[in-house]
Design a protein that fits this description.
Blueprint (H helix, E strand, L loop, with lengths): L5 H17 L5 H13 L6 H20 L11 E2 L5 E2 L2 H38 L16 H16 L6 H12 L6 H20 L12 H4 L10 H33 L6 H32 L17 H4 L5 H12 L9 H19 L3 H20 L10 H20 L3 H11 L13 H4 L2 H16 L3 H4 L5 H18 L13
Antiparallel strand pairs: 1-2
Length: about 500
């Protein structure tokens, strides 16, 4: 089930909101969790088993890491620098390791097992051996996102940045005077805490395609969050603007990208036109999904952090990653780059860390050499920009020049993100620099690339990407004229759904 579908907009969402606001406040999170499982299991109910396994394992690990539960023979809990109580070192390390093995093991198996088999077969064929049969593994929707969120839960607890759901529930019970003794009362409170954690992991707005919501960002909201008409109205506005980005901008840009990447060798300007179309498709598709996720969360009282900050206005690749997919870039920074040593261990180590983190980020998107090369391009650019420093002559170039060159480099890297195979990516890059001879009849695709409708949409997308107001800022206040614009966008977007045969979000494949 996707947000930009009639079954979601006219059936699932209204019924979920009706159930959520009609049950007593204590039952709202269980109701939201159940609805989220229905949302997730709509396509394949077996995926819910894997999600439940991940939720249960990480909930148990979190309680042991925090010292809420203790292994026999372990000493009293320690106090973290933040003041939070946590388990002794051996217990923390043991259950952090178990959590990482569970999450990374699942991610590696479902995402990279087939990739490994294909490369082993390629080596066997190279050396004249008979390749083996490949075991087909179905990739569960959203596994890249919810495994990273589960990892953040236990690492936040280990680093003393957050407390597990059980601690919140038990403290709330003590403060209210409810009994916390006896096995039945304790079990009841633990189940309530498990549901709070399950609601964090399975919440349908961010479950299958992000943003990657870190536990510390939702920790307090899981147990106490206000609901208001203003918050709900802003959520509707986010939903409408995200729908408009997806249906009115991203989908037409997808027509341009599909035509260009499916045409074979192109004239250089056709190749650039196609990759610019893809750059806008990817941005408005994913930022539109993020807007819709933020809006849906607001409707049930949750506030998610911003995930995009006008990334195509960046004047360097470093600045691009301070604006693009913020939930991923900050996750990689806080949980991989900084623990690897960050920039604290000398220049050479810093460059290696930057490259390693971007390679991991590339592989996170998919098991393909194309994604690895995409990550390597960004890693090399990040290291290179750090090497030349902030006082280089490049930094004194006109802002428009810096933004234009950054966008060109980003588009070049997007080729490896979009092309299905490495040879196709290489051929497309050759077309971009004029080193490919177009095939006879290639000009026929001009009917798609340059028809008035697609040209107009691309120009509008460019104006919005480079000079438009962000949804985050536009929805802060909703006077009547803004509410009218938002309502019109929602109506037009929903009507356009009837004319479009497919509306998949690109990041569902990751």
């Amino acid at each position: 089930m996707v947000f930009s579908s009639h079954i979601f907009l006219f059936y699932f969402l209204p019924l979920t909101l009706l159930l959520y606001y009609s049950v007593p406040r204590l039952w709202r999170m269980p109701a939201l969790t159940v609805c989220s499982y229905v949302f997730y299991g709509w396509t394949n109910p077996w995926f819910c088993v894997l999600l439940a396994w991940s939720t249960t394992v990480d909930f148990i690990c979190g309680n042991f890491i925090a010292g809420h539960w203790r292994l026999p023979g372990q000493p009293a809990n320690e106090t973290a620098p933040s003041g939070f109580v946590r388990a002794p070192r051996f217990q923390r390390r043991l259950f952090v390791a178990l959590s990482l093995i569970s999450n990374i093991g699942m991610l590696a198996f479902f995402k990279f097992f087939m990739f490994g088999q294909e490369n082993v077969n390629a080596l066997l064929t190279t050396f004249g051996q008979q390749p083996t049969d490949i075991l087909l593994v179905l990739l569960p929707a959203g596994i890249s996102f919810y495994t990273f969120e589960s990892i953040s839960y236990n690492l936040d607890i280990c680093f003393g940045l957050a407390r597990p759901a059980s601690v919140w529930v038990f403290e709330a019970a003590q403060q209210s005077g409810r009994p916390v003794t006896g096995w039945w009362n304790k079990l009841r409170l633990e189940l309530r805490a498990l549901n709070a954690f399950a609601c964090y992991i399975t919440q349908f707005p961010h479950l299958v395609a992000g943003p990657i919501i870190r536990y510390q960002d939702l920790e307090k909201q899981l147990h106490d969050r206000p609901h208001s008409y203003e918050k709900f109205a802003r959520g509707v506005a986010f939903l409408a603007m995200g729908m408009a980005k997806k249906v009115l901008l991203a989908n037409p840009m997808g027509d341009i990208a599909d035509a260009a990447f499916g045409a074979g060798p192109l004239v250089w300007y056709d190749a650039w036109w196609g990759i610019i179309g893809y750059a806008f498709q990817l941005y408005f598709d994913f930022s539109g999904y993020s807007d819709m996720a933020i809006g849906l969360a607001l409707m049930v009282g949750f506030v998610f952090p911003k995930n995009f900050d006008s990334p195509y206005q960046a004047d360097s690749i470093t600045n691009f990653w301070q604006r693009w997919h913020l939930s991923l870039s900050t996750w990689l920074r806080d949980y991989i780059y900084i623990p690897f040593g960050g920039n604290r261990s000398g220049e050479v180590r810093t460059y290696c860390n930057l490259l390693a983190v971007m390679l991991i980020g590339g592989f996170w998107h998919g098991a393909s050499w194309n994604f690895l090369i995409w990550g390597a391009i960004h890693g090399v650019m990040l290291a290179g920009e750090r090497l030349i420093g902030k006082d280089s002559p490049w930094r004194r170039a006109p802002l428009a020049v810096r933004i234009g060159l950054t966008f060109a480099i980003t588009c070049f890297a997007w080729v490896f993100f979009r092309a299905k195979t490495l040879p196709l990516a290489w051929d497309y890059c050759l077309s971009m620099v004029g080193l490919n001879q177009p095939q006879p009849g290639t000009a026929l695709i001009h009917g798609v690339l340059y028809d008035s409708y697609h040209v107009a949409v691309l120009l509008i997308a460019g104006v919005i990407a480079f000079a438009g107001t962000q949804s985050w800022d536009f929805t802060r206040r909703l006077p009547p004229w803004k509410a009218t614009v938002v309502f019109a966008l929602l109506i037009v977007s929903v009507l356009m759904l009837w004319t479009q045969t497919a509306n998949p979000f690109l990041y569902f494949q990751f």
